[in-house]
Amino acid sequence: MITTILLVTLHSFGTAQIKIGIPKVPKINEQPRQDQSKQVETKEPAQNRPGPAGSTQTKSAAGYPKFTYEEATSTPKLLGTTIEISVKTEHLNEVSRFIPRISFDSYFDKSTVLRYVAEWTKPNGGQWFTEQLDASNSYREAFTSLKSPYDDASFKQNATNVLGTYGVKVTDSKSGSVVFQGKFRVAKLPMSDPPKPTYSLFYVDQDWSLSVGAVGLDFDNWHSDQLNPSVFLWFKGNLDSKSFEARLFHNGAMVASTDDGGYVNSQRSRGEDCFLQPDVCSYKLWKFYWTNFVIENNDYGRTKYPRATFTRDKPGDYTVKIFYKGVQVRELSFTIDSQGFLPANPWAQYMPMVYGGVITPVKILGTLDKRNPAGSLTEPLYGNLANFPLGK
After folding, report:
1. pLDDT tens, 259-307?
2. Which of 16, 121, 172, 358 is in the most buried spot, having the most CB atoms within 10 Å?
3. What architecture (CATH level 2) is domain 94-205?
4. Residue 68, pLDDT score
């Protein structure tokens, strides 16, 4: 998805849920670069390796636990942080209509071709239409991207202009198993001034994503010898990376700020066609990390990064406070265990994050985001995260 840092949440709505067979501890698909002259890995029995969220575990030559990767299996894992439902709008003679689209990534060994079918339902619960999703290989090993096809014939036959809450169910056509099932709300903006009732831009209300954050590693970390826990958060509108600051606190004391060494940048977008009012329906996923906040994963890190705070040295509770132009706009918390890792929390099973991470509730502060309070508090990840304590 959290990426997808997204980072994302789920909340149960009747039968709406992700139904995918995943182990309680997901696996990492990339091997971090290591100094082979200084490190020898010794595998421990699986029962002796509790493992952080989204990883497996071995020991370094120095005896401390470290991340290692395991190969993807033949059982696909739908990555919840990558799920996105959107709509495609077209206009003919100033009459606008839309059709829904879904996309997500699946993590597996590519031993077969995925054949997934999306069944769309109307606000009244009636059947709308069915489509086979296109599957393509990602640039990342063991990742497959699935998405709705671009089909003009389907648009002409199925497009509508009716607002409301729609449903979707994705099924593996080979096994008949349900991969994902959820709901989404379609709204609209006027496309003209003065507004014309039939000429609109349709969009999916994604405000739930503002309440959901993720903490962990991502693909880039596994091409570096320095593992920096990162925070992934969604914001609305067009924001300036230079105006952000992320402060990290451990047991109440500040230990790092991105102003003193770190990274702030947007990762991906939703609602890119919402150019008329980006503060209403355009969303960007932002990544934050601190250069000197490090998971120790090699035997030379302390020499190479003498100013770093290593997670293994400071287990406990952490709080992240995000500021924009000097005003606090977000707050979230996470825990580091005694081995220096992010332990799995109750929601890890719903949203496996391949690179070792967890989703976490986000407190939304201030007035930076123009949002729909009802939407951000009732439908996280299209109605799929059980017992998630939503931030306000």
Report:
1. 999 999 998 899 888 888 899 999 999 999 999 999 888 778 888 888 8
2. 358
3. Sandwich (2.60)
4. 62
Amino acid making up residue 229: P
308 SS3 class: coil
Tokens of 91: 């206009």
Domain ranges of the chain: 94-205
- pLDDT in the model for residue 140: 73
Q: Cα Rg for the chain, rounded, in angstroms?
A: 22
Tally of residues, the chain: 392
Q: What is the dihedral of CA 293, 298, 299, 304, to 10 degrees?
A: -50
Strand pairing of 309-310 and 293-294?
parallel
Contact 296, 310 (CB under 8 A): yes
> Range with the lowest mean pLDDT among 114-118, 179-183, 368-372?
368-372
pLDDT in tens, 296-344: 887 788 888 888 999 999 999 999 999 999 999 999 999 999 888 888 8
- Residue the block writes with tokens 């994902």: 180
**For residue 103, which phi and psi values (nearest 5 degrees)?**
-145, 150
Q: Which two tokens stand for residue 8?
A: 């994302």
Among the residues of the chain, which ranges form H helices? 152-158, 278-281, 301-304, 373-378
3-class state of residue 168 by DSSP: strand
Which amino acid is located at 361 in the chain? P
Average pLDDT over residues 229-236: 95
Alpha-helical (H) ranges within 64-197 are 152-158
Helix (H) or strand (E) holding 304: helix 301-304
* Element spanning 99, H or E: strand 95-107
Strand, coil or helix: 380:
helix
Half-sphere exposure at residue 93, Cβ-oriented, CA atoms within 13 angstroms: 0
Amino acid sitting at position 137: N
